[in-house]
Amino acid sequence: xxxxxxxxxxxxxxxxxxxxxxxxxxxxxxxxxxxxxxxxxxxxxxxxxx
Length: 50
Fold this sequence. Notes:
globular, 1 helix, alpha+beta
């Protein structure tokens, strides 16, 4: 699995919009219309529509 990167300000707003804490999530893929995240501690993966 690729390592995640810290989310940008715009990505943090998208993460907050789905009621998640952006401090706990890393961005693994930034596709048009979709954001792939991985949790910092549990390695749980999520896909968010953007």
